[in-house]
Design a protein that fits this description.
Distance between the termini: 85 Å
Strand content: 25-35%
Structural class: alpha+beta
Radius of gyration: 30 Å
Largest sheet: 6 strands, mixed
Length: about 500
Amino acid sequence: MRNESLYRLLAVLLLAVSIAPIGVAAWWLGFVHGESPCVLCWQQRTAMALVGLVCAFILRFGPRPRYIGLGLLIAAHGLYMGVRHSALHWVRDVGQGFAGLFFGAHTYTWSAFIFWVFVVAIALLLLAMRDGAATAEPRDPGPLGRLAIGVFLFAIAGNVIQAFASTGPPPYMGQSDPVRFSFDPATWVWSLEEWEPSPVSLRGRYDVEKPSLAGLEADPARGPLRDLPRLAPKSRTQIAAALDGAPADLAWEGSTGRFLVTTDRHQVAILDASLARVLNQVRVDPGFSVSLGDGLPGVAWLDPTTVAALGENKSYVVLAENEGADRAKNWRFFLAGGERFEERSRGRFATVRARMNYVGALAFDAAGRSLYTVTVPSRRYKKLVVSRFDRRDMTLSEEFLPALGAGLALAAEGRALDEYFVTGIAVEAGRLHALSAAFSTLLEIDLATHEVVAAHALDGVTRPTGLALRDGEWLVLGEDGTVTTFAR
């Protein structure tokens, strides 16, 4: 070392770590207030204890490379655990969290800062080291160093007591929601719950597969609802207009008679009433600013010249026709068609119940000035959630899980509406019409009561991707570009 000042700084850091996060956590928060660490908190606190031990070794034996290297490895683990634990709660509302506050922040959020300070301290040690200092003989830590080591050992003793009482000896390893600390052995809970098998993924709970129609059961008779009335097709029309990619969704605009189609290549195309000619089209750049995901499975008319398109990740883009649009100015938004469209806005729908699910459809209710989405199930999250967003600010206004209305029954115990895979929706007269590619079923959901009030089995439909309403008809878009008409 160039001088002893960094040793004194290291001793001060060891004192701070021993007193605040390690000592106060056990002796004050634990023994006095009864707070016990969860299994993630123990990971962070154990890493802090090991960091303190590395500091004590450096105070006694000097800045040897193996101590510095070990300290950085422990700090890397601590930083990860601090971020991993805090990330579970960062998205909560103001004032929400777990356990008590320490200077206005929940205790688990402090660990990332503490380990960052340790990394900075190690960097300063390395910068201040002279050649050969790493091989120095054991040194006298001095009065301040001896005090820091003593306080550290006292703090560790408290944590050992708390760990034994609240966690127990191996193979017990703690709880996700710990029990309040007590010195009474009769109240101790030693749990093995954390050893239970769980899905392993580097992405954790965000490991959700993208929606796919492959492998979906098409037979309505195998669906969760029994004895559904069957609807026979009234007519079939093939989209003759040249599209860029496979069709993903369909919408109809009553005042102009025009159709709206999106594709899996992020094309938004306006077609004539016969579906034979493209009247206007644009290809949205899915990676500019807000990512729109792998396609546009949802689309809706907001007015006769304005449309909204939805990605499976709940990101949306609002587009407006403009024959005089500046192509050069719009180049950053569009891959093609920027001379006839302009982008009004792009953003993300934020949800609560639907947060961990992808969506497969979009609808606009002009009467209620609201946009609707419906989730699709995944292996990890199987739930059918309807979300409503106010058109004025695109903010969540309502979410619900549809219930089964009178006259409908499940085919067997254990079946649920969550099995439906909704790929097309439309709203009319207070009802949400939802088309499921799984089991080729069309549901009618009362938006006032949140109940499925009617359901229909669709004949001759396989893997539908979109739904539109037109003058008393359901228009079902197939992945091959066929539009099948059913009478309502």
